[in-house]
Design a protein that fits this description.
Elements (H helix, E strand, L loop, with lengths): L19 H27 L4 H17 L1 H6 L3 H18 L1 H5 L18 H12 L2 H12 L4 H8 L3 H21 L14
Length: about 200
């Protein structure tokens, strides 16, 4: 007669009646409440202004953090861990099969423009950021939007400092080229100034 071994999931119970799982969940909920707004701001920058992609990146990152909660709690720098998770989520999103089949167009026909809120330079910068590869975009965002130094950015991207420098230089070069095309012209000349 053979006995089948069954696996029983035991929940560790504390002496005060609480459980380790509920403690984990409460600390995770606290993290979400405290850090989600900052994560979303970073994700919007990494997604080049696309709020829907940013929400997806944050949700993917939070899911991964929950699954790897013990590793996150052991991390020396939780902010760097979160930034790296966001970058990994962006890179994974770019690798999805449906993403490669999607065709980008210059102008969306069904997008309504709100009068007075359209900024052609801002739109050009967002589009230029969208056109950068994900790691290059992350290098530019971390270096110039979050003022991380080269070493911190290299740590967040898990690459060498030289790679950060070259990716940042190339990214800035592309952004400058786009901005030079969209320089506003001066149409106002103050009184007393001869043109």
């Amino acid at each position: 007669m053979q006995r089948r071994a069954t696996r029983i999931r035991l929940r560790s119970v504390r002496h005060d009646g609480g459980s380790a799982t509920s403690e984990r969940e409460s600390s995770f909920h606290e993290l979400v409440a405290r850090r989600r707004p900052g994560m979303l701001r970073t994700a919007v920058l990494l997604a080049a202004g696309d709020p829907h992609l940013a929400e997806d990146l944050v949700q993917t990152t939070l899911t991964r953090l929950y699954v790897r909660w013990s590793a996150f709690q052991r991390a020396d720098n939780p902010d760097a861990y979160i930034r790296r998770s966001l970058v990994n989520a962006l890179i994974d999103e770019r690798r999805r099969v449906w993403r490669r089949r999607e065709q980008s167009v210059a102008e969306l026909p069904d997008q309504a423009a709100v009068a007075g809120l359209v900024n052609p330079v801002g739109q050009a910068v967002r589009q230029a950021l969208r056109d950068l590869p994900p790691r290059m975009r992350a290098a530019v965002v971390f270096r110039y939007f979050y003022d991380l130094d080269v070493a911190q950015t290299a740590d967040a991207l898990k690459c060498s400092e030289g790679t950060v420098k070259s990716q940042t230089a190339r990214g800035l070069e592309r952004l400058r080229a786009v901005l030079e095309q969209h320089q506003p012209t001066v149409s106002y000349v103050p009184e007393g100034v001869k043109s």
